[in-house]
TrEMBL record:
It comes from Tetraodon nigroviridis. It is found in: Peroxisome. This is Peroxisomal bifunctional enzyme. Monomer. Its EC number is 1.1.1.35, 4.2.1.17, 5.3.3.8. Residues 465-568, 597-683 form the 3-hydroxyacyl-CoA dehydrogenase C-terminal domain. Residues 290-462 form the 3-hydroxyacyl-CoA dehydrogenase NAD binding domain. The keyword NAD applies. Pathway: Lipid metabolism; fatty acid beta-oxidation. It catalyses: a 4-saturated-(3S)-3-hydroxyacyl-CoA = a (3E)-enoyl-CoA + H2O; (3Z)-hexenoyl-CoA = (2E)-hexenoyl-CoA; (3S)-hydroxyhexanoyl-CoA = (2E)-hexenoyl-CoA + H2O; (3S)-hydroxyhexadecanoyl-CoA = (2E)-hexadecenoyl-CoA + H2O.
Length: 701
């Protein structure tokens, strides 16, 4: 909807009304069109202001309408009508003007922005391009290099930057609508020709061809082609090109995946637990002071993330040398982040101590000590004695039993996992792991704290490895089995990187350190040295690959030791080692193609995802997809593992798993899990119906 009123005698005020972000839905487009006509036809009205209700101009096209049949008037002719108006039209930008919202503002003759507003054309992040004239008007207004940068990255700019670039005409600290109305009165009757952006010439820039060629190599080709049309063609032909390019993107799998992921990241905030706790009925407690215990790499990152979110942080490290180093490292991290943001580091929000007692007054404590149950058990008993009785006690463990740690304390309902991903100050993902006794308030508080730190928090039930690492285990395992059967680390990584992972599984393991998993496997009784014969490759009645353990026995810990799955200097060791290993175990190497690598590594991970859904460890497929894209490098343009399964087709995923299970009956995880089989049997419903299909007592399966 759009509301029309007359203000200050002669200004027609059009207010976009579609909470929460005034997206340009069919109803809003219809409303704007009608209001513009009314304003232009009203004899009393000399100028027009367009704004959005509730302090937000417009979040762009309504993404929920994409992929559905188009209804309502199209955006492009409406923007043309505004630009062609003979009365000045002023956009009053507050909050955000993004995508179609900014394109609407670019169709206005003037743009006044509040100083806190942000502007941008983020369509590329949804697999699209700004096809309501954005690729044609923005280069004409601010020049090709700056427009190309904004359009191909999707970056938002601040109001100050927008003023400097020439996107807006004025920035105000006052009420932008009031300022725009006054401004509209002041420009009444002034000529408008040079205010119509579509009629401007693209400002000349040196060596445009090489700029376009360079951009083509780096970014979405369609965006570059559209901006090139702005620089080389008349406006009307440029608009035709923009429309044609958008048509090729609109139905693409990438666009569907990116749009799905936009909503998935937001859906995880509406968490629920099998015990009935929910986001909308649980009240978070305020957290003003947080303590971090253990200042290794993770503890330092968590300290920085908390301080940057404006909390007072008590950083505790009992080893003097480590404490001194951590203090320096944290100061350096804060300084570098401030330089990047162009601000000064906040002084005084972190205090350091070598005494646990320093955490006594904290609202919430996050321990990040060595990943060892005995060490953590002792710490939780101490924290329970030292801290306030209402303090939330959180563990940053990546796999240990949260319920067991809770049982060491006096108030188990206040114990949770907060599983950060390295580097903790930068990674967007946080797994909030609730135990059997965690209270709804505790979950809500940790979820809210994650949001305050700028993270996407996903509520996850307590199980070994939680959601992310539990799935990762199956993925790694298949990669090892593939090596046993004849594949090479390079071949497996190539297949995964061509699929879209920034790093294949072996390169990623080398980076994070092979010894980390080795320590966990030793603690679980899986890694055992000296075993020979068939028993070397079987544990707990299932196929097991000791390859990772053997590499560690040869002191190959990955990048940190200069050698892992790859050698960082010429060294044919690994291939010889694999050949000898296969010969020793009577394994006949075969040629393994990319399809098998992908299906075995990815479908087994997806199968575990379905098992996690069935076990109610997470509430919906969006949780798993957010975890995998934000924490494990799953390519965003493929939406996440569960969305990928939906795109591939559940029947095919189940068939291929069955096929591999028949070939490898000793690997039980290759057998399609019950939920996957039931979804296939019920006709493979689309992903947005899975949540309902899984839901316990009301299950439709
Ligand atoms: C011809 C085609 C023309 C144009 C193409 C386009 O315009 S494509 C759309 C381009 N716009 C965007 O990509 C902006 C997306 N939105 C945002 O970046 C943020 O939502 C925004 C506007 C900065 C506000 O952020 P905030 O943190 O305040 O809110 P949040 O992101 O949680 O969003 C609140 C709910 O609104 C839903 N929503 C946001 N934008 C849109 C949109 N454009 N269409 C539909 N719905 C949108 C969002 O999903 C949240 O709802 P929820 O139910 O929680 O999912």
């Amino acid at each position: 909807m759009a509301q029309y009123t007359r203000v200050s005698g002669s200004v027609g005020l059009i207010t976009l009304q579609n909470p929460p972000v005034n997206a340009l839905s069919a109803a809003v487009r219809l409303g704007i069109g009608e209001a513009v006509q009314r304003a232009l036809g009203d004899q009393e009205v000399q100028s027009v202001v367009i704004c959005g209700q509730n302090g937000l101009f417009c979040g762009g096209a309504d993404i929920r309408e994409f992929g559905k049949e188009m209804t309502g008037p199209p955006l492009v002719p409406m923007i043309h009508a505004i630009e062609a108006a003979t009365k000045p039209v002023v956009a009053a930008i507050e909050g955000s003007a993004l995508g179609g919202g900014l394109e609407l503002a670019l169709g206005c003759h003037y743009r006044i922005s509040h100083c806190k507003a942000r502007l941008g054309l983020p369509e590329v992040t949804l697999g699209l391009l700004p096809a309501a004239g954005g690729t044609q008007r923005l280069p004409r207004l601010i020049g090709v290099p700056a427009a190309l940068n904004l359009i191909t990255t999707g970056h938002h700019v601040t109001a100050a930057e927008a003023l400097q670039l020439g996107i807006v005409d004025q920035v105000t600290e006052h009420n932008a609508v009031d300022v725009a109305v006054k401004f509209a009165l002041s420009v009444t009757g002034k000529p408008l020709h040079d205010r119509r952006v579509s009629s401007l010439e693209c400002p000349a820039a040196p060596d445009l061809d090489s700029l376009f060629e360079e951009a083509m190599l780096k970014v979405r080709v369609a965006c570059v082609q559209a901006v090139r049309a702005a620089a080389t063609l008349p406006y009307a032909r440029g608009m035709e090109r923009e429309k044609a390019l958008m048509a090729t993107l609109f139905g693409s799998g990438q666009a569907r995946a990116l749009q799905y992921f936009f909503f998935a990241q937001r859906a995880v905030g509406r968490w629920s637990t099998p015990g009935g706790a929910r986001w909308d009925t649980s009240q978070p407690r305020p957290v003003r002071t947080a303590a971090v215990i253990g200042l290794g790499t993770m503890g330092r990152g968590i300290t920085v993330a908390l301080a940057q979110a404006g909390l007072s942080v008590v950083a505790v490290e009992t080893q003097a040398k480590q404490l001194t180093e951590a203090r320096k490292a944290v100061a350096g991290m804060l300084k570098r982040a401030a330089v990047r943001r162009g601000t000064t580091p906040e002084p005084g929000s972190i205090t350091y101590s070598d005494q646990l007692q320093a955490a006594a007054r904290a609202d919430l404590v996050i321990e990040a000590v060595f990943e060892d149950m005995e060490v953590k058990e002792t710490l939780f008993r101490q924290l329970s004695a030292v801290c306030r009785p209402d303090a939330l006690l959180c563990t940053n463990t990546s796999s240990l039993d949260v319920d067991h740690l809770a049982s060491q304390t006096r108030h188990p309902h206040l114990v949770l996992g907060m599983h950060f991903f390295a580097p903790a100050q930068a990674m967007k993902l946080l797994e909030v792991v609730y135990g059997a006794r965690s209270s709804p308030t505790a979950v809500a508080t940790a979820m809210q704290l994650g949001k305050t730190m700028g993270k996407v928090s996903v509520a996850v039930g307590n199980c070994r490895g939680f959601a992310g690492n539990r799935m990762l285990k199956r993925y790694l395992e298949q990669a090892f089995f593939l090596l046993e059967e004849g594949a090479t680390p390079e071949g497996v990584d190539r297949a995964l990187e061509e699929f879209g992972f920034a790093m294949g599984v072996f390169r990623m393991s080398d980076l994070s350190g092979l010894d980390v998993g080795w320590r966990v496997r030793k603690a679980e009784g899986l890694a055992q040295s000296g075993l020979t014969g068939p028993s070397a490759r079987v544990r707990q009645g299932r196929r097991y690959s000791p390859l990772g353990d053997l590499l560690c026995e040869h002191q190959r810990f990955g990048q940190k030791s200069g050698r892992g799955w790859y050698q960082y200097e010429p060294d044919p060791w690994l291939h010889r080692f694999l050949e000898e290993y296969r010969a020793r175990h009577g394994l006949l190497p075969r040629r393994i193609d990319q399809q098998e690598v992908l299906e075995r590594c990815l479908f087994v991970l997806i199968n575990e995802g379905f098992q996690i859904l069935e076990d109610r460890i997470v509430a919906g497929p969006e949780d798993i997809d957010a975890i995998y894209v934000l924490g494990y490098g799953w390519p965003r343009h493929r939406g996440g593992p569960m969305f990928y399964a939906h795109m591939v087709g559940l029947e095919r995923v189940a068939q291929r798993l069955e096929h591999y299970h028949q070939a490898h009956p000793e690997v039980p995880y290759l057998q399609p899990c019950g939920l996957l089989r039931r979804l296939v049997a019920s006709g493979s419903p689309p992903i947005h119906r899975w949540r309902r299909a899984i839901a316990g007592p009301h299950s439709q399966l």
